[in-house]
Amino acid sequence: MSDTTTEARSGAGTPRARPARRRQEGRALAWVFLAPASIVLLALVLWPIVYSVWRSLFDRSGNAFIGLGNYQRMFTDPATFTALKNNLIWVIVAPILVTVLGLIFAVLTERIRWGTAFKLIVFMPMAISFLAAGIIFRVVYEEDPERGLANAIVTSVHDIFNDASQYPGARPRDADALPAAEAGGYATGAAQVEPGTTMPIPLVGIGADTLPEEPSAASPPAEAGSDTITGTVWFDFAPGGTGTAGEIDDGEVALPGVIVQVLRDGEVVADAITEEDGRFTIDGLDRGGYELALPAENFSEPFRGVSWLGPGLVTPSIITAYVWMWAGFAMVLIGAGLSSIPRDALEAARIDGANEWQVFRLITVPLLAPVLTVVLVTMIINVLKIFDLVYIIAPGSSAPAANVVAVQMWSVSFGGAQDFGMGSALGVFLFLLVLPAMLFNIRRFRQEQQ
Questions:
Q1: Helices and strands per DSSP (H, E), number in the chain
Q2: For the CA atoms of 235, 239, 240, 246, what is the dihedral angle to 10 degrees?
């Protein structure tokens, strides 16, 4: 009787006390399950952040406390300013391009027959690591058109609209008779050639791969009339190195297709193209002196493409590789949001007379705003930490121009300088750059849950 009275007085057995006990037991059980993850999070995330902040206050060796000296040195370092400028370019350009392309792909795949296959192809780069993608694009951007896909395409398109020179790098044997002209190419002095003159023009410096496949033997110039200038253009090199310089010897081949011009007072008055045997004839000339010229288009080097990984284009080229990798990720997320849009709203807008562009701009995009925000903020966080592609794709000569904060942090810490104080300061600075975007994401997640 006394035990029952004691239990009743304590309230342990009352209905009101049982839920409180269950909640306490539930919290204890929750902490049991959360403890392993919390320990890992503390060891791998929180402690490195705290230690980096502490290490950034010491010098290179870690023995002398210098306060904010590393931060002061960081903001007076030209390499850091280049990294900050490039990070700003990345944050402005890459997330917008990825989001816009993802939106376009998501909308278009709903309207094409093989939309699933197209989505698979666009999303496939996500299965490739940054290391592999960097190696792939390092080859794609090779300057040699025979190896680099980008320059192979560019040179092919360029050659469609521009004729390549037939004998790049060729030059006259006698530089005194045909010196280099100011406008390019080679030319005699003004008023040095008169009608009735025969001009042999021996050329050297011609690669074997630029000669005709079935070359013809060079023929002596034809006899010139009173109103003509004749001559022969040939490769002044006999097999075995025999022969006389400046004379057509046995075995020396003609150079067809060379443009020869006759100028007076700087204006072209007549021209001719050498035939298969190397001869040319320019007739119908008035009396007086002329200037004979071989224009630069005969000898200009072929277009070799663009220096994609040069200092001027290396950052846009790497951003292109990044967009290629992440456009599929954005497409999938936006496509999921697009599938949840009520079709009644779209059909109602079309019934009211809206065209497809108006439906897309005034209905689809506003309804997709939350998803687009998720993609954009995720990409901003991602590009602020970009390291792999920049480190792999940028060659040594262009690495300073492509530098970003993450690469700069690695370089000063492990790239030979071994300045872990400065590296920690850069790491803390990078964390502070990423923090606002992370807080924005956390706030948005809480608002969605509410």
A1: 16, 8
A2: -30
- With 0-12 CB in 10 A as exposed, 13-18 as middle and 19+ as buried, what is 122? buried
* pLDDT tens digits, 282-334: 998 988 889 999 998 888 877 888 899 999 999 999 999 999 999 999 999 99
Give me Rg for the CA atoms of the chain: 37
Crossing angle for the helix pair 314-339 and 130-140, to the nearest 10 degrees: 130
Beta partners for 395? Answer: none
Q: How many whole angstroms separate alpha carbon 408 and alpha carbon 242? A: 60
pLDDT digits (tens, 9 = 90+) for 394-423: 998 889 999 999 999 998 888 777 889 888
CA–CA distance, 155 with 169 (Å, rounded to integer): 19
Distances, alpha carbon 424 to alpha carbons 46, 53, 66, in Å: 14, 7, 13
Map residue 38 onto helix, strand or coil: helix
Cβ neighbours of residue 129 closer than 8 Å, sequence gap 6 or more: none
Check: CB of residue 162 under 8 Å from CB of residue 266.
Answer: no
Residue 286 is which amino acid? D
Phi, psi for residue 180 in degrees, rounded to 5: -65, 135
Task: Quickly count: other Cβ atoms within 10 Å of residue 47's Cβ.
Answer: 11
- Please state the pTM of the whole predicted model: 0.75
Per-residue CA distances from 80 to 73, 74, 252, 400, 404 (Å): 10, 6, 60, 10, 8
The residues, ordered by sequence, that sit 6+ positions from 58 with a Cβ below 8 Å of its Cβ are 64, 65, 66, 421
Q: Round to whole Å and give the CA distance between 187 and 262.
A: 9
**Residue listed under structure tokens 């121009």:** 401
CA 307 to chain centre: 10
